[in-house]
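CHAIN AND CONFORMATION:

***
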Amino acid sequence: MNLEKLTKELIDIESVTGNENAVLDFIEQFLLTSEFSGELIRNEGGIIAYHPSSVSNIALVGHVDTVPIDDQQVYLKDDSKIYGRGSVDMKSGIAVLLEIMNSNFKNVSGVFYTAEEGPMVNNGLELLMPIIKDNFDLEFAIILEPTNGEVQLGCLGSVNADLQINGKSAHSARPWMGENPILKLSDVINYIEENEIQESVIDGLTFKQIITATTISGGTANNVIPSQVNLNINYRFLPTQSENEAAEFIIETFSKYGVIKIKNTSNGALPNLESQKVKEFISISGAEVTPKQAWTDIARFSAEGIAAVNFGPGDPLLAHSPDEFVNTNQIVESYESIVKYLKG
Protein backbone atom coordinates (compact mmCIF):
# COMPACT_ATOMS: atom_id res chain seq x y z
CA MET A 1 0.00 0.00 0.00
CA ASN A 2 1.37 3.39 -0.97
CA LEU A 3 -1.29 6.03 -0.45
CA GLU A 4 1.17 8.86 -1.10
CA LYS A 5 2.17 7.50 -4.51
CA LEU A 6 -1.45 6.80 -5.45
CA THR A 7 -2.54 10.31 -4.45
CA LYS A 8 0.21 11.86 -6.57
CA GLU A 9 -0.73 9.73 -9.57
CA LEU A 10 -4.35 10.84 -9.27
CA ILE A 11 -3.34 14.51 -8.97
CA ASP A 12 -1.23 14.20 -12.13
CA ILE A 13 -4.38 13.28 -14.09
CA GLU A 14 -6.18 16.50 -14.99
CA SER A 15 -9.88 15.99 -14.27
CA VAL A 16 -11.57 19.39 -14.29
CA THR A 17 -15.36 19.05 -14.25
CA GLY A 18 -16.51 17.81 -17.65
CA ASN A 19 -13.17 16.16 -18.43
CA GLU A 20 -13.13 13.15 -16.09
CA ASN A 21 -12.72 10.24 -18.55
CA ALA A 22 -8.96 9.92 -18.06
CA VAL A 23 -9.20 9.67 -14.27
CA LEU A 24 -12.12 7.21 -14.54
CA ASP A 25 -9.99 5.09 -16.90
CA PHE A 26 -7.21 5.12 -14.30
CA ILE A 27 -9.60 4.11 -11.50
CA GLU A 28 -11.13 1.34 -13.61
CA GLN A 29 -7.72 -0.04 -14.61
CA PHE A 30 -6.45 0.17 -11.03
CA LEU A 31 -9.36 -1.88 -9.71
CA LEU A 32 -9.20 -4.42 -12.55
CA THR A 33 -5.48 -5.08 -12.06
CA SER A 34 -5.31 -4.84 -8.24
CA GLU A 35 -6.46 -7.14 -5.47
CA PHE A 36 -10.07 -6.00 -5.79
CA SER A 37 -12.15 -9.11 -6.47
CA GLY A 38 -15.54 -7.53 -7.21
CA GLU A 39 -17.19 -6.11 -10.29
CA LEU A 40 -17.60 -2.65 -11.81
CA ILE A 41 -20.49 -0.66 -13.21
CA ARG A 42 -19.49 2.33 -15.33
CA ASN A 43 -21.57 4.96 -17.07
CA GLU A 44 -21.38 8.70 -17.70
CA GLY A 45 -21.96 9.33 -14.00
CA GLY A 46 -18.87 7.41 -12.90
CA ILE A 47 -18.01 3.99 -11.49
CA ILE A 48 -19.54 1.73 -8.84
CA ALA A 49 -17.30 -1.03 -7.47
CA TYR A 50 -19.12 -3.83 -5.61
CA HIS A 51 -19.30 -7.53 -4.74
CA PRO A 52 -22.38 -9.01 -6.47
CA SER A 53 -22.67 -12.05 -4.19
CA SER A 54 -23.02 -9.98 -1.02
CA VAL A 55 -25.30 -7.39 0.52
CA SER A 56 -23.73 -3.95 0.07
CA ASN A 57 -25.00 -1.92 3.00
CA ILE A 58 -22.11 0.55 3.30
CA ALA A 59 -20.95 2.92 0.56
CA LEU A 60 -17.68 4.84 0.36
CA VAL A 61 -18.26 7.84 -1.88
CA GLY A 62 -16.00 10.32 -3.63
CA HIS A 63 -16.06 12.68 -6.61
CA VAL A 64 -13.28 12.47 -9.18
CA ASP A 65 -13.50 15.99 -10.66
CA THR A 66 -11.71 19.15 -9.57
CA VAL A 67 -12.18 22.87 -10.08
CA PRO A 68 -9.96 24.42 -12.80
CA ILE A 69 -6.23 24.54 -12.16
CA ASP A 70 -5.06 27.97 -10.98
CA ASP A 71 -2.37 29.76 -13.03
CA GLN A 72 -0.55 30.30 -9.73
CA GLN A 73 -0.92 26.68 -8.57
CA VAL A 74 1.86 25.76 -6.14
CA TYR A 75 3.78 22.48 -6.54
CA LEU A 76 6.39 22.18 -3.79
CA LYS A 77 8.49 19.17 -2.89
CA ASP A 78 7.84 18.31 0.75
CA ASP A 79 7.92 14.79 2.17
CA SER A 80 5.21 15.66 4.69
CA LYS A 81 2.82 17.29 2.18
CA ILE A 82 1.42 16.64 -1.28
CA TYR A 83 0.71 19.78 -3.32
CA GLY A 84 -1.47 20.26 -6.37
CA ARG A 85 -5.00 20.82 -7.60
CA GLY A 86 -7.27 18.24 -6.05
CA SER A 87 -4.83 17.14 -3.36
CA VAL A 88 -7.45 18.16 -0.78
CA ASP A 89 -10.64 18.15 -2.85
CA MET A 90 -10.49 15.25 -3.29
CA LYS A 91 -7.82 13.08 -4.94
CA SER A 92 -6.42 12.02 -1.54
CA GLY A 93 -9.90 10.84 -0.55
CA ILE A 94 -10.16 8.87 -3.82
CA ALA A 95 -6.80 7.24 -3.04
CA VAL A 96 -8.12 6.16 0.36
CA LEU A 97 -11.29 4.83 -1.26
CA LEU A 98 -9.30 2.80 -3.83
CA GLU A 99 -7.05 1.23 -1.21
CA ILE A 100 -10.01 0.27 0.97
CA MET A 101 -11.73 -1.38 -2.00
CA ASN A 102 -8.58 -3.48 -2.37
CA SER A 103 -9.27 -4.91 1.09
CA ASN A 104 -12.46 -6.50 -0.31
CA PHE A 105 -14.90 -5.83 2.51
CA LYS A 106 -17.80 -7.76 1.02
CA ASN A 107 -20.54 -5.43 2.30
CA VAL A 108 -18.83 -2.27 1.02
CA SER A 109 -19.38 -0.62 -2.36
CA GLY A 110 -17.24 2.18 -3.76
CA VAL A 111 -18.82 5.08 -5.63
CA PHE A 112 -16.60 7.26 -7.84
CA TYR A 113 -18.69 9.99 -9.45
CA THR A 114 -18.28 12.93 -11.80
CA ALA A 115 -19.19 16.62 -11.89
CA GLU A 116 -19.60 17.40 -8.19
CA GLU A 117 -17.90 20.77 -8.63
CA GLY A 118 -20.38 21.88 -11.31
CA PRO A 119 -24.13 22.52 -11.32
CA MET A 120 -26.13 20.01 -9.29
CA VAL A 121 -28.19 18.95 -12.31
CA ASN A 122 -25.03 17.57 -14.01
CA ASN A 123 -23.76 15.76 -10.91
CA GLY A 124 -22.79 12.16 -11.70
CA LEU A 125 -24.79 10.87 -8.74
CA GLU A 126 -27.91 11.78 -10.72
CA LEU A 127 -27.06 8.79 -12.92
CA LEU A 128 -25.56 6.53 -10.26
CA MET A 129 -28.10 6.96 -7.46
CA PRO A 130 -30.94 5.06 -9.23
CA ILE A 131 -28.53 2.12 -9.71
CA ILE A 132 -27.49 2.29 -6.06
CA LYS A 133 -31.11 2.37 -4.88
CA ASP A 134 -32.19 -0.53 -7.13
CA ASN A 135 -29.24 -2.84 -6.49
CA PHE A 136 -27.94 -2.17 -2.97
CA ASP A 137 -29.55 -2.07 0.45
CA LEU A 138 -27.51 0.83 1.79
CA GLU A 139 -27.70 1.73 5.46
CA PHE A 140 -24.68 4.00 5.75
CA ALA A 141 -22.42 6.13 3.54
CA ILE A 142 -19.06 7.75 4.17
CA ILE A 143 -18.51 10.79 1.94
CA LEU A 144 -14.73 11.25 1.68
CA GLU A 145 -14.87 15.03 1.38
CA PRO A 146 -11.97 16.81 3.13
CA THR A 147 -12.78 17.25 6.81
CA ASN A 148 -9.32 17.67 8.36
CA GLY A 149 -9.77 14.34 10.12
CA GLU A 150 -13.02 15.40 11.77
CA VAL A 151 -16.40 13.73 11.45
CA GLN A 152 -18.41 16.52 9.86
CA LEU A 153 -22.16 16.03 10.05
CA GLY A 154 -24.94 17.36 7.88
CA CYS A 155 -24.44 20.15 5.38
CA LEU A 156 -25.86 23.51 4.40
CA GLY A 157 -28.32 23.95 1.56
CA SER A 158 -27.54 26.26 -1.34
CA VAL A 159 -29.43 28.76 -3.49
CA ASN A 160 -28.01 30.76 -6.39
CA ALA A 161 -30.11 33.63 -7.68
CA ASP A 162 -29.63 36.37 -10.26
CA LEU A 163 -30.41 39.87 -9.05
CA GLN A 164 -30.89 42.29 -11.94
CA ILE A 165 -30.80 45.94 -10.95
CA ASN A 166 -32.27 48.02 -13.75
CA GLY A 167 -31.47 51.54 -14.81
CA LYS A 168 -31.54 53.56 -18.01
CA SER A 169 -28.62 53.82 -20.41
CA ALA A 170 -27.19 57.18 -21.47
CA HIS A 171 -23.96 58.80 -22.61
CA SER A 172 -21.52 58.96 -19.71
CA ALA A 173 -20.94 62.67 -20.42
CA ARG A 174 -24.65 63.28 -19.78
CA PRO A 175 -25.55 60.91 -16.90
CA TRP A 176 -28.62 62.98 -15.99
CA MET A 177 -30.24 61.64 -19.14
CA GLY A 178 -30.10 58.11 -17.76
CA GLU A 179 -30.27 56.21 -14.49
CA ASN A 180 -27.11 54.44 -13.35
CA PRO A 181 -27.91 51.06 -11.73
CA ILE A 182 -24.36 50.82 -10.35
CA LEU A 183 -25.19 53.60 -7.91
CA LYS A 184 -28.05 51.48 -6.56
CA LEU A 185 -25.66 48.72 -5.47
CA SER A 186 -24.94 50.33 -2.11
CA ASP A 187 -28.31 49.33 -0.64
CA VAL A 188 -27.79 45.69 -1.60
CA ILE A 189 -24.20 45.68 -0.35
CA ASN A 190 -25.21 47.23 2.97
CA TYR A 191 -27.88 44.58 3.47
CA ILE A 192 -25.45 41.75 2.71
CA GLU A 193 -22.79 43.20 5.02
CA GLU A 194 -25.29 43.42 7.88
CA ASN A 195 -26.72 39.93 7.33
CA GLU A 196 -23.90 37.94 5.73
CA ILE A 197 -23.31 35.52 8.63
CA GLN A 198 -25.89 34.25 11.11
CA GLU A 199 -25.15 31.38 13.49
CA SER A 200 -27.62 28.71 14.64
CA VAL A 201 -27.17 25.64 16.83
CA ILE A 202 -28.63 22.37 15.50
CA ASP A 203 -28.16 19.17 17.52
CA GLY A 204 -25.44 20.91 19.51
CA LEU A 205 -23.50 21.92 16.36
CA THR A 206 -23.10 25.55 15.28
CA PHE A 207 -23.89 26.11 11.60
CA LYS A 208 -23.27 29.46 9.90
CA GLN A 209 -25.97 30.64 7.50
CA ILE A 210 -24.42 32.77 4.75
CA ILE A 211 -25.77 35.35 2.29
CA THR A 212 -23.20 36.79 -0.09
CA ALA A 213 -22.67 38.11 -3.61
CA THR A 214 -20.26 36.06 -5.73
CA THR A 215 -20.27 37.56 -9.24
CA ILE A 216 -21.14 40.92 -10.79
CA SER A 217 -21.61 41.90 -14.43
CA GLY A 218 -22.92 44.81 -16.46
CA GLY A 219 -22.08 47.57 -18.86
CA THR A 220 -21.31 47.65 -22.57
CA ALA A 221 -18.71 50.41 -23.03
CA ASN A 222 -16.59 52.85 -21.06
CA ASN A 223 -18.65 55.82 -22.21
CA VAL A 224 -22.12 54.36 -21.64
CA ILE A 225 -24.21 54.38 -18.48
CA PRO A 226 -25.36 50.72 -18.25
CA SER A 227 -29.02 49.78 -18.45
CA GLN A 228 -28.60 47.01 -15.87
CA VAL A 229 -26.22 45.34 -13.43
CA ASN A 230 -26.45 41.68 -12.43
CA LEU A 231 -25.32 40.09 -9.18
CA ASN A 232 -25.24 36.42 -8.27
CA ILE A 233 -26.64 36.02 -4.77
CA ASN A 234 -25.40 32.86 -3.08
CA TYR A 235 -27.37 31.74 -0.03
CA ARG A 236 -26.04 28.90 2.14
CA PHE A 237 -29.04 28.08 4.27
CA LEU A 238 -29.57 25.97 7.37
CA PRO A 239 -30.53 22.30 6.99
CA THR A 240 -33.70 23.03 8.97
CA GLN A 241 -34.99 24.95 5.91
CA SER A 242 -36.19 23.37 2.67
CA GLU A 243 -34.90 24.59 -0.68
CA ASN A 244 -38.35 26.00 -1.47
CA GLU A 245 -38.41 27.97 1.78
CA ALA A 246 -34.90 29.24 1.12
CA ALA A 247 -35.78 30.30 -2.44
CA GLU A 248 -38.89 32.15 -1.20
CA PHE A 249 -36.78 33.94 1.41
CA ILE A 250 -34.33 35.16 -1.23
CA ILE A 251 -37.15 36.33 -3.51
CA GLU A 252 -38.87 38.21 -0.68
CA THR A 253 -35.62 39.73 0.55
CA PHE A 254 -34.11 40.94 -2.72
CA SER A 255 -37.14 41.74 -4.91
CA LYS A 256 -37.17 45.28 -3.49
CA TYR A 257 -33.74 45.89 -5.01
CA GLY A 258 -34.48 44.59 -8.50
CA VAL A 259 -35.65 41.58 -10.47
CA ILE A 260 -34.66 38.38 -8.66
CA LYS A 261 -34.59 35.02 -10.45
CA ILE A 262 -33.72 31.69 -8.81
CA LYS A 263 -31.13 29.79 -10.87
CA ASN A 264 -30.64 26.62 -8.82
CA THR A 265 -31.31 25.21 -5.37
CA SER A 266 -30.00 22.28 -3.31
CA ASN A 267 -31.35 20.96 -0.03
CA GLY A 268 -29.04 20.59 2.94
CA ALA A 269 -28.89 17.70 5.40
CA LEU A 270 -29.46 17.53 9.15
CA PRO A 271 -26.65 16.18 11.35
CA ASN A 272 -28.62 12.97 12.01
CA LEU A 273 -26.94 12.40 15.37
CA GLU A 274 -29.75 10.08 16.43
CA SER A 275 -28.67 7.49 13.82
CA GLN A 276 -27.05 4.43 15.35
CA LYS A 277 -24.77 4.10 12.31
CA VAL A 278 -23.53 7.67 12.76
CA LYS A 279 -23.00 7.10 16.48
CA GLU A 280 -21.01 3.93 15.79
CA PHE A 281 -18.71 5.65 13.31
CA ILE A 282 -18.07 8.53 15.70
CA SER A 283 -17.34 6.13 18.55
CA ILE A 284 -15.03 3.82 16.62
CA SER A 285 -13.14 6.55 14.76
CA GLY A 286 -12.71 8.65 17.89
CA ALA A 287 -12.71 11.77 15.72
CA GLU A 288 -13.94 15.20 16.74
CA VAL A 289 -17.49 15.99 15.60
CA THR A 290 -18.18 19.29 13.81
CA PRO A 291 -20.80 20.64 11.35
CA LYS A 292 -20.16 20.69 7.59
CA GLN A 293 -19.97 24.36 6.66
CA ALA A 294 -20.73 23.78 2.97
CA TRP A 295 -22.92 21.68 0.69
CA THR A 296 -21.90 18.08 0.01
CA ASP A 297 -23.59 15.07 -1.53
CA ILE A 298 -24.41 13.86 1.96
CA ALA A 299 -27.67 15.71 1.16
CA ARG A 300 -28.48 13.21 -1.62
CA PHE A 301 -28.07 10.26 0.72
CA SER A 302 -30.03 12.00 3.46
CA ALA A 303 -32.89 12.56 1.00
CA GLU A 304 -32.94 8.79 0.37
CA GLY A 305 -33.06 8.03 4.09
CA ILE A 306 -29.47 6.77 4.17
CA ALA A 307 -27.41 7.83 7.20
CA ALA A 308 -24.09 9.39 6.20
CA VAL A 309 -21.06 11.29 7.46
CA ASN A 310 -18.44 13.50 5.83
CA PHE A 311 -14.98 12.14 6.67
CA GLY A 312 -11.78 12.40 4.68
CA PRO A 313 -8.20 13.70 4.54
CA GLY A 314 -7.31 17.32 3.89
CA ASP A 315 -8.11 20.71 5.35
CA PRO A 316 -11.27 22.04 3.63
CA LEU A 317 -9.97 25.60 4.11
CA LEU A 318 -7.25 24.76 1.54
CA ALA A 319 -9.68 23.36 -1.04
CA HIS A 320 -9.67 25.25 -4.37
CA SER A 321 -6.71 27.40 -3.26
CA PRO A 322 -3.53 27.87 -5.35
CA ASP A 323 -1.43 26.49 -2.47
CA GLU A 324 -3.70 23.46 -1.96
CA PHE A 325 -1.92 20.60 -0.19
CA VAL A 326 -2.69 17.59 1.96
CA ASN A 327 -0.59 16.21 4.81
CA THR A 328 0.57 12.69 3.99
CA ASN A 329 0.04 11.47 7.55
CA GLN A 330 -3.60 12.58 7.39
CA ILE A 331 -4.22 10.39 4.33
CA VAL A 332 -2.95 7.36 6.24
CA GLU A 333 -4.91 8.28 9.38
CA SER A 334 -8.15 8.61 7.39
CA TYR A 335 -7.56 5.23 5.77
CA GLU A 336 -6.84 3.58 9.12
CA SER A 337 -9.91 5.12 10.80
CA ILE A 338 -12.29 3.90 8.09
CA VAL A 339 -10.74 0.41 8.03
CA LYS A 340 -11.01 0.31 11.83
CA TYR A 341 -14.71 1.12 11.53
CA LEU A 342 -15.32 -1.47 8.82
CA LYS A 343 -13.58 -4.16 10.86
CA GLY A 344 -15.44 -3.10 13.97
User: Anything to note?
Assistant: The first helix runs from residue 3 to 11. The two ends are 21 Å apart (CA to CA). The mean pLDDT is 93. Residues 34 and 141 are 24 Å apart (CA to CA).
